[in-house]
Design a protein that fits this description.
Length: 221
């Protein structure tokens, strides 16, 4: 549920490049249907990606609550349960972005701090059944007093998980361009697979990190 939509985005974005003349004609003739179709496709693929992340978080929640992963569920069951959180995660993400931009406009540092403290909103939505501002507030409550500890751990996860994935993806792309541009589509699938697994590992690691931060004592204000 990550590899396929990411590949779909590559195809859609590729069609924009291939059909530049069509795009210019659409703007000149005020016919926005091609652009609207592309926008709708991008939106749908984004929703599927959010669905995939929600399903991964559902699995992560069960791994934390079930000993040795004994309670197993089929992909269909996990996918169905993950679908319950799509709207919540999508709208909460938009709300978080709006607040982050607002604080960032006032002062950069408060915007950064808010982004760090609300980094676990996906976890609070799935694992604690919260939503929207409640999910953001819960993440802030847990992280408050441990903001920079959280930041350094998240930064470490990004470096350890995403940097190697990005290097592999970029290397495969460069190799395909050097050999034969017809290999770019296959290279993109490989890159999307690597990045999707990186997202999976990061999502699961984030759930574990959230649980560990909750165990930390609250510092005196």
């Amino acid at each position: 549920m990550l590899i396929l939509p990411f590949t779909g985005m590559y195809i859609v974005e590729g069609s924009i490049g291939i059909n530049e003349t069509l795009g210019e004609f659409a703007w000149r003739e005020t016919d926005l249907r091609p652009l609207l179709l592309i926008g709708a496709a991008e939106f749908l693929l984004t929703i599927i990606i959010i669905w995939g992340i929600a399903s991964i978080t559902v699995v992560g929640k069960r791994l934390l609550t079930s000993k040795a992963g004994r309670n197993r569920s089929s992909f269909t069951v996990v996918r169905k349960e993950g679908s319950k959180y799509i709207v919540n995660m999508f709208l909460t993400g938009i709300l978080r972005d709006c607040f982050t931009i607002f604080w960032g406009i006032l002062l950069i540092i408060p915007g950064v701090i808010y982004a760090i403290r609300t980094a676990f909103y996906n976890v609070t939505i799935v694992c604690e059944g919260l939503g929207y501002r409640k999910a953001l507030r819960r993440s802030k409550e847990v992280v408050k007093g441990h903001t920079w500890t959280t930041f350094w751990h998240l930064l470490g996860l990004v470096i350890v998980i995403f940097f190697p994935a990005i290097i592999v993806a970029a290397s495969v792309d460069e190799l395909a361009r050097g050999l034969d541009t017809r290999l770019l589509f296959a290279a993109n699938i490989i890159a999307n697979t690597v990045l999707s697994y990186a997202i999976l590992l990061f999502a699961l690691a984030t759930i574990i990190l959230y649980g560990e931060i909750k165990k930390l004592p609250n510092p005196k204000k």
